[in-house]
Write a structure and sequence with these properties.
Elements: H1 3-14, H2 33-47, H3 49-54, H4 69-90, H5 102-121, H6 138-144
Helix pairs in contact: 1-2, 2-4, 4-5
């Protein structure tokens, strides 16, 4: 999938804000694509340290992902928050429509769709742990179609 590499590139271009809040900045400031990408990139690296090491971010080399149910619920909530931020950017945040370049609109839309799939999927028990075995699972159903 190309999206993780694109998000990595966007995160590197925009810089990373290690502890940046997920919510848009207070005080009436409009959220920007750059702050959205930086926040998502930072969160994604902290949440999936194995992924971070695999894409060359070695800040979390000594850490492992948290497989607890609470952590999975938190991932769903964060995905929903990022989806909502992307929606606000795409829709102008309740004020006048934001002036976005075609490239910004495209990548904010991609991030929005990625986070929507995560947030929506977390409502289903098998979303994160799809059953895959020699006689059943996505690979078998896919080949029958």
């Amino acid at each position: 999938m190309v999206l993780p590499q694109l998000l990595l590139l966007l995160g590197l271009i925009c810089g990373t804000a290690a502890e940046e809040e997920v919510s848009a900045s207070s005080g009436g400031d409009r959220d920007s694509p750059a702050s959205l990408f930086a926040s998502y990139f930072s969160w994604r690296m902290r949440t999936a340290p194995e992924y971070a090491s695999g894409v060359g971010v070695h800040d979390y080399d000594g850490a492992l992902s948290d497989p607890s149910p609470a952590a999975w619920r938190g991932i769903g909530r964060m995905c929903a928050a990022f989806r909502d931020r992307a929606d606000a950017i795409l829709n102008g945040g309740g004020g006048a429509p934001a002036v976005l370049t075609d490239v910004e609109r495209h990548y904010v839309g991609l991030l929005r769709d990625e986070c929507a799939a995560c947030a929506d999927g977390m409502a289903y028990e098998a979303f994160a742990f799809a059953p895959v075995a020699a006689r059943g699972g996505l690979q078998v159903r896919r080949s029958e179609q």
